[in-house]
Amino acid sequence: FILHAHILSWSGDIPALTSKVMCTTGHNSYKACRFCSICGTYCQENRHVYFPLKPPAGTSENQYDPKNLPLRTHESYIDDINVIKYANGSSHKRKVQERGVYDQSILFELKSIKFPTSFPVDIMHGLFENIAPSMLRHWSGTFFKEDHNNNTDYVLSNKVWTEIGNIMNINRKNMPLDFGRPPIDIQRHSAAFKAEDWSNWVNLYSLPLLQNYLSERYLNGWAKFVHAVKLCLKQNITMTELAVIEKLFLEFVTHYER
Hints:
Elements: H1 14-21, E1 41-43, E2 48-50, H2 74-85, H3 89-99, H4 123-140, H5 158-170, H6 186-189, H7 195-210, H8 216-232, H9 239-257
Antiparallel strand pairs: 1-2
Helix pairs in contact: 2-3, 4-7, 7-8, 8-9
C-alpha cells in the first residue's frame, strides 16, 4: 500500500492567487474574474475597470444575467492558453487582454488541479476585506474619487459615523469574550481593521447600528448580504442552505446595482 498525497485546492489573497499562481491578468484587468468570462467596463472619470451586469447608459457593452454567467472551465483555460502561445507582437498583447490569461500556470502539471474550481474564493479576502470596507466607503461618501458621484441618499454624515463609532467604543467592555476582538470605533480606525474586525462588524454590529440611519431600502439590501455571510460561517452547510446563500448573494448584487 502506497499513500499518495494530492493537492486539491489553493487559497490566498486575490492578487497573489490570480496573477502569480493562476497566471491570469489580475483583478484590475478587463477579464478579472477567474470563474467567468464577464468583460469589464472602463470608467474614464475614475480610471478604473468595473464589472456591471447592466452596462452604463450610452455604451454598447454586454448585459449579463447573474444567474447565468458565462463560466470558465478547465478546458476553456487551456484553449485561452493555446491562443496566447501562438500570438506574437501586438496581437499577443490584444489576445492577453481578450482572454484574461498571460501564461500557462505550472499547476496544470498537477492532474488533481482543475481550473478554476481548485481556486475557490475564501471568505476572509472575498467578503470581509473586500465587500465590507467597500460598502463602508459607500456609506461614508468616499467610494468615488469625484465628490458628485458620492452625493447619494445612502451616504451618512460624519456626525452619524461619530455617533456609531462612539457607541462601538463605549461598549468595548460590555462585549462577551466569545465575540472575539472587542468593537473598535469604525469611523476612526477602520483602516486598521483586521478580518476579524470586519467579520464582527458584518455579523454583529452593522445591522443594529445602521438601522436608525440607513433607509429601509438600503438596510434590507445589506441584510441580505449579512444573512448570506452568517450562513457561510456555519461549520456544516446543507444543500438547502447553499441554495439560500446563492439566492441571497444574487439579491444583494441586484440591489447593489440599482
